[in-house]
Write a structure and sequence with these properties.
20% strand, alpha+beta, FAS1 domain, GPI-anchor, seven-stranded mixed sheet, 17 helices
Length: 400
């Protein structure tokens, strides 16, 4: 009987225990003030979020003095991003592994290489373990004598992330080359060329394109319905007021850069360019197997492809128009079974409005009309956990 009690205990604990090692590079470096500048620029360049979503990774941090030497070159933020990308390896190199490199030398891919920003193999870094015990780092396209060496380990989660200090910034001709900023990108032109011409045309004609462009520098994610989807929706779109049309279009953009991987790892509510005051205009990002779905109170759309994923801009193709509850009515709840004598009233109800016809601007659907499914899920989940603990306590009582 003790085996049964032990088995139940292990099962319950498994439900409550985390299954993965999460890491946050910003929090790790925040414990060490000497890396505050490096930490700051990981955030500014959005590299921090990229590090946090990856596994089996190494971050080569440099102290504030080394970062000041880099900043004295007056590079643009986008060039600094490329340089710092060289300091993020797509492999795990803890202190022990660095001193046990086979044949004393190896080459590893950096994030600069993995993102496709580097030309050829210029995003690779040579790691050399010298006879004197020093470990040197040098970009493969650098012709200078290696000067950057391993200093110490800052933090390690074995085979997940290693954060180490190196003595100097890694520089290469390719990484230091001038990099174009987001203003060089034309969001609407890009979408038009990639199968979202109808949506980009609506952005231009409504004036919403300006808001998308202004949001680009701080990060922008766009969910672009296909041309066919837009064309089928046009009769309903024309019934909206001018403000309603703009709000609907802004609802398809988020004022933050989110790669597909980041969307997968950060399910939950997402604010949009239309979010303002009491008008929430948000939706839920939710994984469904290999798919990533966007759920409003009215419809659920699926991401069908990536048009561009280059920080600070991500554009995804979706299969449905995102309909906000602030503009459209939710489908009425399914009627309860009725007796035969109510057939006449049932026939009358069938003549009602289409479920997703536009509602007047600001005509929101009360939250309690759409919360039933969430409540039901909470009840079922609660009874499941209560049942497990009841069984656990019952077995213990029987053995007293």
């Amino acid at each position: 009987m003790r085996l049964v009690v032990s088995a139940i205990t292990i099962f319950v604990l498994s439900l409550l225990s985390p299954t993965t090692h999460a890491h946050n590079i910003t929090q790790i470096l925040a414990k060490h003030p000497e890396f505050s500048t490096f930490n700051h620029y990981l955030t500014v360049t959005h590299l921090a979020s990229e590090i946090n979503r990856r596994r089996t990774i190494t971050v080569c941090a440099v102290d504030n003095a080394a970062m000041n030497e880099l900043l004295d070159k007056h590079f643009s933020t986008y060039t600094i991003k490329n340089v710092l990308s060289l300091h993020i390896f797509a492999d795990y190199f803890g202190a022990k592994k660095l001193h046990q490199i086979p044949k004393s030398s190896t080459t590893t891919s950096s994030l600069f290489q993995a993102t496709g920003e580097a030309a050829g193999t210029s995003g690779y870094v040579n790691i050399t373990n010298s006879k004197g015990g020093k470990v040197y780092f040098s970009p493969v396209d650098s012709e200078d004598t290696p000067t950057s060496t391993f200093v110490k380990s800052i933090d390690e989660i074995p085979y997940v992330i290693a954060v180490i200090q190196i003595s100097h910034v890694l520089l290469s001709p390719e990484a230091e080359a001038p990099a174009g900023g987001p203003k060089d990108l034309n969001v609407t032109s890009l979408m038009a060329k990639q199968g979202c011409k109808a949506f980009s045309d609506l952005l231009r004609s409504s004036g919403a394109a300006d808001t998308f462009s202004q949001s680009l520098e701080g990060g922008l994610t766009v969910f672009c319905p296909t041309d066919e989807t837009i064309n089928n929706f046009m009769p309903k779109y024309k019934n909206l007021t001018s403000d309603g049309k703009i709000s609907l279009l802004l609802y398809h953009g988020a004022p933050v850069y989110q790669s597909l991987g980041m969307l997968r790892s950060s399910n939950g509510l997402m604010n949009t360019l239309a979010t303002e005051g009491a008008n929430k205009y948000d939706f839920t990002v939710q994984n469904d197997g290999e798919d990533v779905k966007l759920k409003t109170k009215i419809v659920t759309a699926t991401i069908k492809g990536t048009l561009i994923d280059e920080d600070p801009l991500a554009v995804f193709k979706i299969d449905k128009i995102l309909l906000p509850r602030e503009l459209f009515k939710a489908a009425p709840p399914a009627p309860a079974p009725k007796s035969p004598k109510s057939a006449k009233s049932k026939a009358k109800s069938d003549d009602g409005e289409d479920a997703d016809a536009p509602a007047p601007d600001g005509d929101s659907v009360p939250a309690d009309e759409t919360a039933d499914s969430n409540v039901a899920a909470g009840i079922h989940g609660g009874w499941f956990v209560k049942g497990i603990f009841s069984l656990f306590l019952g077995v213990i009582v029987c053995n007293i």
